[in-house]
Amino acid sequence: MSTDRRRLTGPSDVKTPLRGISSGASTLPKKFSPPDSSPRKFFVKSGLTKNANGSAYLEAGTTIVEVGVYGPRPIRGSFIDRASFSVECKFLPYLTQPNEVIFNGSDKRNARTSLTHIEHRISKYVETAFLPSICLEKYPKSAIDIYVNVIAFDAQTQTLSNLVAWVVNCTALALVDSAIEVKDLVTGGHARMEHDGEVKMDAVVDSGDETVEGTECVASFMKMHENQMVAIWVESNGSLEVDEQGLEKLMNGCDTMATEVRKNLNGYLLSVANGNE
């Protein structure tokens, strides 16, 4: 028996217009000048988890993330006029979580039954980033659940903020694969500002130098909605304070990385639609 997905489907011979392709003119104003650096290359693949409504797999350096989307699924109980939405992020037990001594304390349970503080932080950020984009009102009396699994992560060279950005990008692809109606494709960017003011996108940390102070920022955007920012997270590992000019530089890096990632995801989705994947 097929599941009632509570959505209107178009005719079978409908042709979808290609959006986002223009002659070079941009209708959105450029807020900041682009930085000199660029994000790392990454690998993505969707539709690998067969028992999920949508799934995505992403590799970026030593980071490997897998996301599964389940729903919209009917729920029992009182009627609700819009779907409930939840995100749960978990690390595999053998992985060292970023800054786990600071956030998780002495919690080193191998068979933990609940999320750690770091997993809670990632889950809440992803949930905040995607809530404005999902058309929850299209799925009354339903539940949409997203499960994020961090399969590989190097806590010595990559930071929590960097991981969150790639989790957001992987989740965006999984939502598209699930065919859940969304207002826009949410993509995230990560930037790090050193003490001298230099900003680097998708920056990794030298494992041999853990004393370098810097401020990191991860932000998520909906580009087709006037480049609306839907979530932001700024933190520093030292005594540096972020002023207005510094925050503008960080936002510049995050915005540019999110744009580059979106271009790559759009290219992948077009290749899937054309049957090249």
What does this structure look like?
The protein has a single domain (40-272), classed as GHMP Kinase, N-terminal domain (Ribosomal Protein S5, domain 2). Helix 2 (117-130) packs across helix 3 (160-178). The chain starts with 42 loop residues before the first strand and ends with a helix. The chain is of the alpha+beta class. It has helices at residues 100-103, 117-130, 160-178, 244-273, and strands at residues 43-46, 54-60, 63-74, 84-91, 142-152, 186-194, 199-201, 214-222, 228-236. The chain is globular and about 55 Å long.
Question: Mind sketching the topology for me?
Answer:
Elements (H helix, E strand, L loop, with lengths): L42 E4 L7 E7 L2 E12 L9 E8 L8 H4 L13 H14 L11 E11 L7 H19 L7 E9 L4 E3 L12 E9 L5 E9 L7 H30 L4
Parallel strand pairs: 4-5
Antiparallel strand pairs: 1-2, 2-3, 3-5, 6-7, 6-8, 8-9
Helix pairs in contact: 2-3
Find the structural class using helix and strand composition: alpha+beta
Total helical segments:
4
Q: Can you identify the CATH superfamily? A: GHMP Kinase, N-terminal domain
Q: What is the helix/strand order? A: EEEEHHEHEEEEH
Q: Tell me which CATH architecture applies here.
A: 2-Layer Sandwich
Largest sheet: 5 strands, mixed
> Number of DSSP strands?
9
Question: What is the number of domains?
Answer: 1
CATH class categorisation: Alpha Beta
**Residue share in helices?**
10-25%
What general outline do the C-alpha atoms trace? globular
